Amino acid sequence: MSAIVSAADARRSRVRLLIVTMLFLVTTVNYADRATLSIAGPALSKELHLDPVAMGYVFSAFGWSYVIAQVPCGWLLDRFGSKWVYAISIIVWSIFTALQGLVGFLSAGTAVLLLFGLRFLVGIAEAPSFPANARIVAAWFPGNERGTASAFFNSGQYFATVIFAPLMGWIAHEHGWRHVFYVMGGLGIVMGIAWIKTIYEPKEHPAINEAEFDYIKQGGALVDMDAAKDGKTHDSGPSWDHIRQLLANRMMLGVYIGQYCINTLTYFFLTWFPIYLVKERGLSILQAGFVATLPALCGFIGGVLGGVISDYLLRRTGSLTIARKIPIVGGMLLSMSIIACNYVDGQALVVSFMALAFFGKGIGALGWAVVSDTSPKEAGGVSGGLFNTFGNLSSITTPIIIGYILAATGSFNGALVFVGANALVAAIAYLFIVGEIKRVQLKAA
Questions:
Q1: Engineered SS bond to 204: which of 176, 200, 351, 380, CB 3.0-4.6 Å?
Q2: Residues 35-82 pLDDT 10s
Q3: Residue 410 region, left (φ>0) first, then alpha (ψ -120 to 50), else beta?
Q4: How far apart are CA 3 and CA 240, in angstroms?
């Protein structure tokens, strides 16, 4: 985050750095909780006698509810503000994560149904997270820092694997898969309490000074986004016409298609990747937890670097379109290197190509910066919710499609081609559909 801080900041407080650090930490826990099932998956599937297709459907349970809840949760954010909607979200998803550890005490059929149900509830509870992240970045950061800030919090998805995949692998190996859920659920509850203590709107934060407030406001931050969310003076929230206008916008449709394809890589990594390492490459679950950290670390580095590159290009060119599209398209083309894993045998080469693919994915994962750049002020939560709805349809389709590919072929080769092809489509969407990137201006109904 050093790129955010310049010499001109000397007189300003730097509260926005604390805010984006909290977003990063919460996102890290968020993605670690999503990945609990993939780490526990090999032992859990063996104990509960689940075949690849059944595991694909269990993996997808999170995605069904996460997608369904996006727009309603975006509306809640626009109606009641980010702080408390997000706080409740963190605590509730953590409780449901911890409860997943109890399914091992039930018979196999009942356990599978309960596991699907709990993953479904985790998806609903996590739904406000990324629209809230985008709203908070839009409120706290001027335009020339928004790409770095968005890339930084979004890179928490990779950092989650760097930190928690080895930890969860060790817990599963030493204490059993159930304890993975207990530990991560407890950590999330602690994070929810920390969130309540540290997050405020720019006008309300006790540590911000006038110089920082003026700087972010003059730079385009939407500092009064939640100013009237006091339970008395807020309006009724965004309307259906706002949603219609967003869906009719060609730029946003291109962004939605791109995010769907980008997230296909994400959900391969969160669901099937550890199982790929265990079943296709012969690693133990403990080894898989540690090996997964290298691609994740490269994704984290790429994620931060993508934001830095994007904001640098914005300062040099003054064009949001150039600044956002170059890293996204270049990163997605680099991500296609995942297909090369089908043509090498050594574990080191496999991990190297995976690392290169996720480095590219990290560079290109600027979708949430684009949301912060383009969302209309009066419907920022709904805009983020629509974006995340389309983007996370891949959380449903990716695990199921890969499950069927495995069942039909007995190999991950087709699955890796499927993932790489999605990276190509994402690049095409940004090149030929999105057009100029600019803030959407909604018309009065």
A1: 200
A2: 787 777 677 777 777 777 777 777 778 888 988 998 888 888 888 888
A3: left
A4: 39
Residues near 365 by Cβ (< 8 Å), separated by ≥ 6?
A: 151, 154, 155, 262, 302, 303, 306, 331
pLDDT at 298 over 60: yes
Residue 34 CB contacts under 8 Å (≥ 6 apart), including other chains: 62, 122, 126, 270
* Cα separation, 119 vs 131, whole angstroms: 20
Do the Cβ atoms of 64 and 392 come closer than 8 Å? no
Phi and psi, residue 205, nearest 5°: -70, 130
**Chain centroid, CA 45 distance in Å:** 25
Q: Pick 202 or 237 by higher pLDDT.
A: 202
Over 339-353, what HEC string results? HHHHHCCCHHHHHHH
pTM over 0.90: no
R_g of the chain computed on alpha carbons = 21
Amino acid in the structure at residue 263: N
- Report which DSSP code applies to 378: G
Q: Report the distance separating Cα 83 and Cα 75, nearest Å.
A: 14
289 and 432 Cβ atoms separated by less than 8 Å: no
Query: Does the pLDDT value for residue 234 go beyond 50?
Result: no
- The answer to whether 56 and 400 are in contact (CB under 8 A) is yes
| Model confidence at 237: pLDDT above 70 | no
- Of 98, 83, 69, 96, the C-alpha closest to 192 is 83
Structural contact between residues 346 and 203, judged by C-beta atoms closer than 8 angstroms:
no
Q: How far apart are CA 420 and CA 416, in angstroms?
A: 6
d(CA 363, CA 385): 23
Number of H helices, E strands in the chain: 21, 0
Token pair, residue 84, equals 């408390």
